[in-house]
């Protein structure tokens, strides 16, 4: 555990250091920039609210990625499934006249089902036609991006806006805000995280999934239904992505309408978080929070020290690389050292 | 459809296939070395950017091409370092590198040229187009094939034959394929599988560099955010479909180029633009589907 914590801390510190070097090289004040990031993401209750809402959304995507990676399926269609969730939530929110207590659940369930269906299509194509789901889901991303863009250019377009985007959803469909700054989606995401944690650790379903990811042959030998579990994993991860899409529409800090291409950065970030968190639900929460903090503070940093906010995307990439590489390298290093020690023992014995 | 439109479609089909083709040729080496390289997308994107930056700062397309290749080789070195030295997973490294490429190109585009979204400038020098005397006189072919950037002819007439020869007719190619087939056995007979993998990744970087440069200073004359738009992924799909055979990769790259060219040329007709843009991606899925049908029928015959 301590080893884990040290490698993570070392990785994050390395990334922060590299980011500083980059800032110095580009002629900015690194400490000021980092301070601005912190101030604009954690400095006031409003800022904390923004950060947490973002955390909630990106944690959903990261859970989706975790589900696929740890069960051995490779669903890379985060973006496409988020778009599906978004467009379904928007359609329900704009065109279904329901009271608030019914509208929000309807949007959430509709989006989750939509995302699950999109992922399931890829899963079924794999099952029946042996088409690599890693490529089909990726291709669906592009297809869905264009398709949703087509929808908001034609039938779903808001005629009052000069850019193609959908109408704003009904006001009772927007998530309520608690204590003046905490969006409802934070609590929703927290509930989903707890359920997922229990599902993962304490149920047969979760166990079978993990076994399938660790060693599919063993899982099959032990009597798991590999094909069925694969489809379930795909559907589940699609549902998480759909939920993320829905939260992107209904969150009180969001635009509450569909804009083409929205959510792509969340899709990438979710994938990266799942990788650094090493398929661990608590890790997902922590990294989602860290990365959301960086992203929420990016605009403030740009405002104060005029560092372009794309710097944060790079910093996140660097963090992922350094945390994972230090983790992997430390295990290789330790294994090598053990092997060397064994080797030495063996040689001594031979000499005798 | 008029005759002219068909000629335009075919012409842009050949032109549009080049980035996918070159990325595919690069990815083929890593495929044969059994390195699952999904950073093709990032390599294309970075080289497209560095190529534009190179021409804008030096004013010559030669330097643009050199910068493009250097950018992509840098990415491939990064990939090689993490995969071979640190032994990080190939998949993870690829995803992280692609994200770094997206963030990095956008950041430096803003930083160096102070623009967001799309970078166009009269300072971008494109690769010179060749007017080939013999081709000029042949009626249909001259419309389709003449007047393309010289990298176009280079890709078809030099790169593809060279890749084929290197892969199947040289000792290097044989050893590379042996490495990919069974690294331990290759090591046992004295082939340094590690360095063969490194060389494969570097070759991939060089070829992707050509492809990315073609994208930004040959095919178009601009750089935009995420301009590779899935071409690297399509190249990976093609490699997996063809199991890394150069000639088949060329054929499929042309098919995808045709879809893209069709999409570009059909703009302004009754079909919504979004559907024409979808074509290459839909074609990839259809190709995967057809491939699976073929395999099934072969299996049935055997049984």
Q: Could you characterize what this model shows?
A:
The complex is a heterodimer of chains A (352) and B (303). Chain A has 352 residues and is an all-alpha fold. Chain A has a domain at 43-61 and 72-196 and 215-269. Chain A contains 13 helices and 2 strands, in the order H-H-H-H-H-H-E-E-H-H-H-H-H-H-H. Chain A has a two-stranded antiparallel sheet with strand order 1-2. In chain A, helix 2 (30-42) packs across helix 3, helix 3 runs parallel beside helix 7 and helix 5 runs antiparallel to helix 10. Chain A is globular, with a radius of gyration of 22 Å. By secondary structure, chain B is mostly helical. Chain B has one domain (3-124, 150-294): Orthogonal Bundle (ABC transporter involved in vitamin B12 uptake, BtuC). Chain B contains 13 helices and 2 strands. In chain B, strands 1-2 form a two-stranded antiparallel sheet. In chain B, helix 1 packs antiparallel against helix 12. The longest helix of chain B is centred in the first third of the chain and has 30 residues, at 3-32. Chain B is globular and about 60 Å long. Chain A binds chain B through residues 26, 74, 125, 129-132, 135-136, 138-143, 146-147, 149-150, 153-154, 268, 271-272, 275, 308, 310-314, 316-318, 320-321, 324-325, 328-329, 332, and chain B through 82, 86-89, 91-93, 95-96, 99-100, 102-104, 106-107, 110-111, 229-230, 233, 236-237, 240, 272, 274-275, 277-278, 281-282, 284-285, 288-289, 292-293, 295-296.
